[in-house]
Structure formats: C-alpha cells, structure tokens
Design brief:
Blueprint lengths: L28 E4 L6 E3 L2 H20 L6 H30 L4 E7 L2 E6 L6 H28 L4 H21 L7 H14 L2 H28 L10 H31 L5 H4 L3 E4 L5 H11 L3 E5 L5 E5 L1 H6 L14 E3 L5 E3 L4 H10 L4 E5 L5 E6 H7 L4
Parallel strand pairs: 2-3, 5-6, 9-10
Antiparallel strand pairs: 1-2, 3-4, 6-7, 7-8, 10-11
Helix pairs in contact: 1-2, 2-3, 2-4, 3-4, 3-5, 5-6, 6-7
Amino acid sequence: MTESAPPTEGKTEPGDPAGAGPGRGGQGLFMGRPFGVPVYVSPSWFLVAVVVTVMFENQVLDTGVISRPGSFVVAFAYAVLLYASVFVHELSHAVTARVLGLPVRSVTLHILGGETSIEREAPTPGREFLIAFAGPLVNLVLAGLGLLAHLLLPLPGVAMLLVDALTYANLLVGAFNLLPGLPLDGGRLVRAAVWKVTGRSRNGAIFAGWVGRAVAVLTLLAGAILATRPAAGGGGGFGWLALLWSALVASFIWVGATQAIRAEKVRDRIPLLDARRLARRATLVTANVPLAEAVRRAQEDRSGALVIVDHEERPLGLVSEKAVTATPEHRRPWIEVGELSRSLDTELTLPADLTGEELIVALRRAPASEYLLVEADGRVYGVLAVADVDRAFAGI
C-alpha cells in the first residue's frame, strides 16, 4: 500500500505584507461548499490517483480476491477512498475552526494531501489545540470503525479488502499528522502546549518549527532505509519510489517548518512598521505636465514619487513607478504624466499615521504597488510603495 502524505493546514499569516503566506488555497477544480467551505481539487491529485492505482493494483492481485482488469477498478477505488479520508481530515479542521469563530477560505486537495486555508491565527492555545487535533482524531476514529467492520461484519472479499485498505490509510494519515513538528498537526499541538506554558505563541511556533525540521530529516532517513530494505519475500526492496516519495514529503515538512519560523520573525518586525518612516516624498504635478518635466521636478525635489493633483492641489491619481521606468527617455517629453497614472480609489488613500498590524491590514485590503499617504486634514504627506515595505523585511 502506498503512503499518503500528511495534509497541511495552510493559513494566511497576518504578518505577511504581501499576503502570500501559506494557505492561499482555492487553486484547482471547484467541487462544492460542504458546511459553507469551498473545496477544490488540484490537478496534481489525478497524478497521485494514477500512481496509487498502479502501486496498489499489484497488492490487490496478490490477494487472489479479484483478477484483472477488475483489480485496477478496486485499486482506483482505494485511491478515491484514500483522498476521501484526507478530505474528511481537512474538512474537520475547517468545521472546527468555523465553530470556534475563525473564518475559513477553502479546503484544497493536492499531491501531498490537503490544505485548509484559515483566515487568521487562533487567538488562544486552547483553540489552536482543538483545531489541530480535529483532523487526526477523525482519521483515528475512522480507522477504529474500519477495524470494527473487519471484525464484526461478514463482508465479501473485495469490500473487506477496501475496508482494510481504508483502515490502514486513516491510521497512517492520523498517526503521521501527529508527529510533533510543524507544519503537521502534531507540531501545532506542540505549539499550543508551549504557548500555554510560556504565554507566548511565538515560543511555541519557533520550538515546533525546529522540531519539524528534525522530523523532515528523520523522514528522509526513513525513506533511505526503506529503499534499501529487502522485501519480506526476497527480491527487490521498496526501491527508488520510496526514496523519492520520502524526499518529497521531507522537503514539504522542511519548507513548512522553515516558513513557520520565518513567519514569527516577520511578526516581530510588524510593530516597527511606520508608514511615515517608509513613505517616499512626493512631487505634485498636474496631469498635462510632460513626463520629462515631471521627472525633472522630482529629481530637483529629491522625491521618489509623482502624484497627480488638480489646480487646487487635491490628489487625483498616482503615477506608476514601473510605467515611468519603462518609458524611454527620448519619448518622455511627448508623453503627459497623466497617461501613466492610476486614479485614486478610496482604499488607495491611507492615513500617514498607520503603523504595525493596522498598516499590514490596510495594504492587504486593497493590493497595489503604491498608496497615497495623507494627513488628517487631507494634505498629501507622501507615497508608500509596497516594495519599500517588503524591503523592511528583507533582512529576515
């Protein structure tokens, strides 16, 4: 039987200025909204379904319960049931999160299992524990029910084979996810415990992240051992496929653990963010000014941005830095600066006093490359470029 890689619980990190942390979710074929949660299946799942079918078919054939081509049908049914177990695992995370008041973006099934995209972090270690434990608990319960069905129900051969396979799959998914390192559920349980003891979620995340790295190394070593281990009946061992699969899972765990550690370092810097400190001085020009003249004025003012204003200096638009850079110098005298501007939507105009988490939330509310910063009386303070905010995190 093939091993199922552990599902992952992706979350958009509040501290990610670009909003591009784990858990963007929603990529793939839309399957429906059970309990109000959008569910997607990544095209990569079909590749896994083929691999699982081919690998499991030999074991189905060896049982003597069914011959070809029926054995392929049974093996494919196992592949579907395997991901049904992963789906139930992820859905249990999503439903528990919603019950506890956390908005859920989506559930996505992909090549390494699944991902539950939760809008924000759990506010308490207790809720973090409950959300993390919900997935493995459901798998272990399903494994227990499968064992009871095997012992108590007089099932025909094919049905018994699928019940046994599904029991093993749920036991594997549940047990693997309880390994004590991020981004696995067990790592989130460790994080919640350390958070409870120390009073700081950061301590729990950093500790569980380092444990996750250790789990990744051990997973790779286990795959290497399995790849060279002789089969029980003689002949070849598990082979290169076991090593490749363990390397894939190990890399996923390592990357997830590293992202968790990095996210906490990013979060440490959020309180230091200050829109005024990051802002670029702006040169105010009317829309009919030639681009060459506008650039000359900006250089003279030693400013780093251009803002389109009316004749009463009320802001009307922001000039794209990329568009200015892309315009050859010989054409700049013949292009009006207004042609390279973007009109100012309400959400692109921000108070100059924004700092910390409030600034990050404002940037994520309306993604753009530049924002206009204004004083309380409406006067232009400057322009905030997202590239400058990203550079504030570059040292991490």
